[in-house]
C-alpha cells in the first residue's frame, strides 16, 4: 500500500492521476487473477493441516480411523442419519479415497529444489562480497602508497598528510581486521566431543527422563519448566509419532535364538550393553594392545563400536585397502556360525524359489537367508550382514528393470553405493552379495566415499588407472571400485565412476535431509528419472522426510526393511524405534513390463 500511495503522490505531482488509477486497476485485476489461479481449498489441505504432516495414505487412514473410533458416541439422531453419517466416515477413511493435489504431494521436493537454487545464489553473492572486500583492501593500500609519494614530494602539506595517513591507517586496520576474522572462520577448529550418557529434552536439550505422555516418542521437561509450551510444534507431530512408537514391537521382532536380546530398553539408551555382548561373544578384544588385539585386528566388528569418525576412528585407521579379509578373520566366529565362503549352488536353493523374471533367489527374510546359507539361528552374523543383505534386497525388489536391461545388453549391472563410510571397513563382507547372485549375472559395484571421509593411510591406494579409484575383483561375478568424491562436486556420476553411468544408486542409512553433501545425489536422481535410487534410514520420521525429497510416490514407497539390523540403536532426544537400515524408500521406482 505504501508503494502505491507513493506512486499516487508522484503521479498527482505530475498531473498523471488518471493514468495512475488505470494502472492501479490493472494491477488489482492481475492480482485477483493470480490469486484465482493459485487458490487452494480446504478439501485439498485438510489431511495435511488437521491430521498429519506425514502424507502417506496409510498413516492418514490409520489416524482418521483412530479419531473416528474415539469420537463415535451414541446419539439420539434418527437411524437414517446414523447410517448416512457412518457411510460417509467409512468412505473418508478408505485409503483409496485419500488424495492430494500434485503441488502438495510434491511440495517437499519443490521446496528442496528451490532451496538448492537459493543456496547456490547465496554462495555466489558471498563470494562476490568477499571479492569486493579484497578489492577494497587493495585500493586502500594503493591510496596509502600515493599518499606517501605526495608526502615526500610536498613538504608544505606534511602535517595535513600525516593526519590523513593516520586516519587512513585506522580505516585500513579495521578493514584488515574484518578480513582476518573471515579468514579465521575458514580455519579448521578442533570440535569438542561430548559423550551423552542420558536422555535429553527435545526442546531445551537438558537431561530429561520424562516422555511425552501422549506419543512416548520424545522427552520433554516437566513443569515448572515451560518446554512443553515453548516446544508447542510437537503437537503437530504427536499423533503421528504415536503411530511410529506403536510399531516398536513389530520392528523388534526377529527369529534369532540368541541368549541376549538387543532390542530391550537398555539397548535403546546406551551402546555399552551392546559392547558387552560383543565382548562376551569374544569378537572384540578386551585390551588395546597385545596378542588379543593382533588376533582380532581384521575383525569386522570393530566398526560396530568405534564407528567411523570421518575416517579417524581406531577401526578406520587399521584398514589396509589392498589386503583381503577372509570370512573366518572378518566374522571372528567358529566355522559353524558363519556362511561358507563360496557362491550358492542348486543344492543350496532346493527349499527356496527363484524369481521367474530375474532368476534371483527370492530371499524375503532373515529365516530365508539363514536357511539358504545353512547357518543356525544362534549365529549373530545378521548384525553385520544387514549391509550386503540390504543391498541384495534393494536389487532383488527394485532393480528388476536394470537387471533385465543388463542381461539384454550382455553387460554388468552398474550400482553406485553413495555416502560410503564404515562400509570401507568391511569391503570383503560384500562378497556375500556376490555369492548370492546368479552365476551368469555380473555386477559392478562402485563404493563412493567423500574425500574427507577417506582414512589418510588409504588415500594413495584410491588413485587408480584414469583416476577411477581402486578396482577389486571380490567374486567371479562381483567387481568393486572404491571411488573418493561426491556427486556434483568434482565427480560426474555419468563419466567418473567405474565404467559408466549407474543403473541403480544405493545409500545405506543415508539421512538425505541432514547433510548438504547429498544434494548432488538428489539432483542427479531427479534429473535422471530412468535411474532408480534406493535408500535406507534409521527411523520412520527421518525416512518419511527424506523420502519426500523424491516426491509423493517416493514417500509412499517407504517400508520396513526385512533385513534391518536386529538391534535397537540408542537415540537420546527422541524415543522413536531406531534400527540400522530400518526403513527403505525408492526414487524413480520402475515396473517391469514383460
Could you describe the 3D structure shown?
With 594 residues, the protein is of the alpha/beta class. Helix content is 44%, strand content 8%. It has an 8-stranded mixed sheet. A two-stranded parallel ribbon has the order 5-6. β1, α21 (431-436) and β2 form a beta-alpha-beta unit. α1 (2-13) packs antiparallel against α2 (17-37), α4 packs antiparallel against α5 and α7 runs antiparallel to α8. The model is unreliable at 1-16, 76-92, 155-194 and 288-292 (pLDDT under 50).
Rg: 31 Å
Structural class: alpha/beta
Distance between the amino and carboxyl termini: 62 Å
Instruction: Summarize the main sheet.
Output: 8 strands, mixed
Q: Give the overall average pLDDT.
A: 80
In the sheet with the most strands, the strands line up as 3-4-2-1-7-8-10-9
Strand content: 5-15%
Query: Which range best describes the helical content: under 10%, 10-25%, 25-40%, 40-55%, 55-70% or over 70%?
Result: 40-55%
The number of helical runs is: 24
Number of strands: 10
Global morphology? globular
Query: Uncertain spans, ≥5 residues at pLDDT below 50?
Result: 1-16, 76-92, 155-194, 288-292
Question: Which keywords apply here?
Answer:
594 residues; 24 helices; alpha/beta; globular; 10 strands; two-stranded parallel ribbon; 44% helix; eight-stranded mixed beta sheet; disordered N terminus
Helix-strand layout with pairing:
Blueprint: H1 2-13, H2 17-37, H3 42-50, H4 57-71, H5 79-93, H6 102-105, H7 107-153, H8 158-186, H9 227-230, H10 238-245, H11 248-251, H12 265-269, H13 272-280, H14 291-295, H15 302-306, H16 314-317, H17 327-331, H18 366-372, H19 382-398, H20 400-409, E1 413-417, H21 431-436, E2 443-449, E3 470-475, E4 478-484, E5 486-487, E6 490-491, E7 504-507, H22 519-527, E8 532-537, H23 540-547, H24 552-556, E9 559-560, E10 583-587
Parallel strand pairs: 1-2, 1-7, 2-4, 5-6, 7-8
Antiparallel strand pairs: 3-4, 8-10, 9-10
Helix pairs in contact: 1-2, 4-5, 7-8
